[in-house]
Amino acid sequence: MMRTGIALFAFALAGGAAAQEAKVVLKDGPGKDKAMQCAACHSLDYIQMNSHFLDKAGWTASINKMINAFGAPISKEDVEPIADYLAQNYGKPAAK
Amino acid sequence: MKKVNDGIPASASRRKLLTGAAGAGVLTALGATRVLADAVGSSGALGFAELPDGALSEQMLYALPGKVPLIKKTFRPPNFETPIDYFRAPVTPNNAFFVRYHIADIPEVKAEEWTLGVGGESAGRELKFTLSQLRKEFKAAETMAVCQCSGNRRGLFEPHVAGVEWGVGAMGNALWRGVRLKDVLDKAGIKADALEVAFDGADHAVLDKTPDFVKSLPIEIARNQDTLIAFEMNGKPLPHWNGFPARLVVPGWTGTYWVKHLVSIKVISKPETNFWMSTAYRLPRGKFKTPSFKSQVGEANEPITTMVVNSLIASLKNGQQIPHGKPLEVKGIAWDGGAGIAGVEISADAGTTWRIARLGKDLGRFSFREFALAIPARERGSMVVMARATSRSGETQVEQLIHNPAGYHHNVIQRLDLKIV
Questions:
Q1: Which CATH fold topology does B3-303 show?
Q2: Which of A2, A45, A46 sits opposite B207 (nearest CB)?
Q3: Structure pTM?
Q4: In this structure, are residues B80 and B67 in contact, taking their beta carbons and an 8 Å threshold?
């Protein structure tokens, strides 16, 4: 269960950081809405920071780590669309 | 006179160092403005492999409350890196010290409400201390020591590995003051079967299912006289973002063990098995020559322990144009996991020949050590400047990256391409 009250409290402490964080936006594309679930636990800049060097398998491994090691409440059906979205928008460019 | 580590007279050196730190603050306030105008925290600009392009474009300078503008890697949990300008002084100012958290619920702890619990199945008894009790009941101790994130320079890995894509600034050096962990443990009593000591901070994860950040140390490291429960940093209370009101200080060991906002200490008879010990912060077994954390060694991997020898040239930028006829001043800092720095060599010809740099004042074996070398004026053209530190245990920086899955222990020799014009 989310400890929303505490999370908000932490936000308040960080002062303007929450406002700054709100400016971090993900690219538009299919699966973006599902990828936004990541923001429950961390700012979305973790995604940009880890681009563009992971392929779909790399992003899938990251999502699974969030679910299995950190208990992220992401449903099994959402793993594939999120991995597709991340690989498409923040993935390693395809070899030419 | 009381001695700190490698024989620095405590009171005199402290005064001098604090003056130094204050001076650095002025210098770096100006420095920060310059960083703003530059690309922020490009590792390529420092003569290393470049950060991932997404990390470069997303990072920015941002000031958390009580901090100067630092290089923002992530907002939540907060991960902020110290810009290069602050490494032109051997002691890192508190307000420029890097910030690293794993989990996002970080309470603002009030000193008067804070207590530290000491116990565990291998402790003689359970004790609870307030801050004033700790200060009153135990002898004060202090040490100058580098706190460096295990993943400092992860962003410079080629190929890149996932994680916080740090440049060179997930580190800092400070004079830490508090009480010895050993003294506190002795008061509680340590049973014969004690194997490790586990530490928990006041910070928590946002989800109940996320493992709380708990770290353990081998009992002998916990009992080492250098290991502190610190309340002060460079003569001031710890900043909130660096663990107020008390944090663990484990000189020589990587930052992951320096638990912030410390609230619980448990002496245990079995290895701590939570995620942060059993899965995270691990190196392929035997890949590095650092000491082994014996009770935690697994089949394939083992925990990271002490820092590897390293150095950073802070006086030059890659691609910098040097006016012809002027000597070149190569200055920077070197550090290691606690043997102390034996020497730093500088090459001005891409590693063909090396000259020994002058070392700055010895602030203790766990501290940054300054180095400097003036290279006589040269003919016009390009030159490659490199720095290579060697520790008193004979360990030297590597030429090729020792790649490992989590991106730890980057100590590749820096290589700056300069132009004499």
A1: Sulfite Oxidase; Chain A, domain 2 (3.90.420)
A2: A2
A3: 0.90
A4: yes
